[in-house]
């Protein structure tokens, strides 16, 4: 099982750059890139910060997948 | 970069330069080391390796959680491989050569430990594999 996310989609929908988002949640742009590529699984704290930043819940952004399929 | 950051880094570089000089380095070597430190301080905020918190005054650079995870893993990797290296050296010198491990060899192991740390850090930053 792996952690998937649609952070890039949500970020671009809001018109934010990776730098904007990184500054908003207090991490580096590299960390945002790594999360969007699925190369880094954020802590609960950071996931909550990301969700709060976009005014949604954590499971709007992240979900656990047992297959290679995207979210339905 | 704010003026407090620049002023504090300039002071640190000056102190480093004097310390290198007092440690017996030639003046040009001390100046070179201090210039390298100044270069690091100027590049670090733009490198993407650190979060810049300007409200923190003279200590604005912070590692974020991913950078801390990378540092921790690089430290563990370096530590384990260094211990294995020391064990290997001890076995080679103790069993095969029947002489004590020379200090120079231990220095080499320490250098290797630093190299492993740096390589591990770089590989993790560039890798798309999960941390």
The arrangement of helices and strands of chain A along the chain is EHHHHHE
Mean pLDDT of chain B: 87
Shape of chain B: flat
Largest sheet of chain B: 2 strands, antiparallel
Descriptive notes:
The complex is a heterodimer of chains A (72) and B (131). Chain A has 72 residues and is mostly helical. Helix content of chain A is 53%, strand content 11%. Chain B is mainly alpha-helical and 131 residues long. Chain B folds into 2 domains: 3-62, no CATH class; 65-126, no CATH class. Helices cover 72% and strands 3% of the residues of chain B. In chain B, helix 1 (3-22) runs antiparallel to helix 2 and helix 3 (65-97) runs antiparallel to helix 4. Chain B is flat. Chain B starts with a helix and ends in a 5-residue tail after the last helix. Chain A binds chain B through residues 2, 22, 26-31, 34, 37-43, 45-46, and chain B through 48-51, 53, 64-67, 69, 125, 127-131.
Feature tags:
heterodimer, A: 72 residues, 434 Repressor (Amino-terminal Domain), 5 helices, 53% helix, B: 131 residues, mainly alpha, 3% strand
SSE diagram, text form:
The complex is a heterodimer of chains A (72) and B (131).
Chain A (H helix, E strand, L loop, with lengths): L1 E4 L1 H7 L4 H8 L3 H9 L6 H10 L4 H4 E4 L7
Antiparallel strand pairs in A: 1-2
Chain B lengths: L2 H20 L4 H17 L7 E2 L8 E2 L2 H33 L5 H24 L5
Antiparallel strand pairs in B: 1-2
Helix pairs in contact in B: 1-2, 3-4
């Amino acid at each position: 099982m792996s952690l998937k996310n649609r952070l890039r989609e949500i970020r671009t929908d809001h018109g934010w750059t990776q730098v904007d988002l990184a500054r908003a949640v207090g991490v580096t742009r590299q960390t945002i890139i790594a999360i969007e590529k699925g190369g880094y699984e954020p802590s609960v704290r950071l996931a909550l910060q990301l969700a709060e930043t976009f005014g949604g819940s954590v499971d709007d952004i992240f979900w656990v997948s047992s297959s290679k399929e995207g979210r339905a | 970069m704010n003026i407090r950051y620049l002023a504090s880094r300039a002071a640190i570089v000056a102190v480093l330069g004097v310390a290198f000089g007092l440690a017996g380095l030639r003046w040009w070597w001390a100046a070179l080391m201090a210039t390298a430190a100044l270069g690091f301080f100027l590049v670090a905020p733009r490198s993407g390796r650190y979060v810049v918190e300007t409200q923190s005054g003279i200590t604005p650079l912070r590692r974020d959680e991913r950078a801390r995870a990378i540092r921790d893993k690089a430290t563990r990797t370096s530590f384990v491989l260094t211990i294995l290296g020391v064990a290997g050296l001890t076995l080679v010198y103790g069993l095969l050569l029947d002489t004590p491990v020379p200090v120079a060899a231990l220095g080499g192991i320490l250098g290797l430990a630093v190299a492993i740390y740096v390589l591990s850090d770089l590989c993790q930053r560039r890798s798309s594999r999960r941390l």
